[in-house]
Amino acid sequence: MRSHAVRFGLLIGLVVAGVVVAHQAGIVEWLRAHSLPELMHELRAQWWAPLAILGFCLAAGSLPLPVTPVVLVAGAVYGPARGWLIIFIGCLAGSAVGYLLARALGRDLVERLLGPERWDRLDKLIADHGLYAMVRARWMLPLVAVKPGPSFCRRSSASRCHLPSSPTSAIS
After folding, report:
1. CB-based burial of residue 142 (10 Å sphere; 0-12 exposed, 13-18 middle, 19+ buried)?
2. Which pTM value belongs to this model?
3. pLDDT at position 88
4. What's the CA gap between 75 and 55, in Å, rounded?
5. CA separation, residue 96 to residues 58, 104, 107 (Å)
6. Are residues 86 and 134 in the same domain?
7. Residue-range definition of the domain harbouring residue 126
8. Do residues 94 and 121 both lie within one domain?
9. Do 133 and 87 share a structural domain?
10. What's the rounded Cα separation, in Å, for the pair 79 and 127?
C-alpha cells in the first residue's frame, strides 16, 4: 500500500515539475502564440525535425517509450506517405538496436534485475506458453514495459495458450 502511495506521489511530482519546466522555458506561451497549422508548417520547414523523429523512434526501440504520439505528429506534419516512411525507418532501426542490446546484455541482465524468484516464474511462463506469452506481454500490456530479446527467450511447444490471472502475476 505504501509503495503505491510513493509511486503516485512521484508521478504527481513529475507532472508538476514538467509543468514548471514548460512555463519557465516559455513553451506554454510559444504554443499559445501559434495555431496548430502554423506549428505544423514550421515543423515541416525545419531540417532537423525528421531527424528528431528518427532519433525518438531509435530510442523507443530499446527503451519503454510510447511511439504512438510521434507517429501521429509525423503523419500530421509530413502526411501519410512521408510520415509513414520516416516512422518505418526509425522504428526498424530502433528495433534493430533493441535486438542488439538484448543480444549483448541479454539473459544475465534480466535475471539480475528480476531476481531469482521472478526470473524462475518468467522462465516457466515462457517455457509453458512460448511466443504467445511474449507477444501478449509486449503488445497487450502497454503499461508493463517489456521488450523481449531473443537472447533470453526460448522456443517451446505452446500447445495450450492460457493467460495469467492478472497482467502482472506472471512476472511480479
Report:
1. exposed
2. 0.54
3. 92
4. 16
5. 9, 12, 18
6. no
7. 115-172
8. no
9. no
10. 43
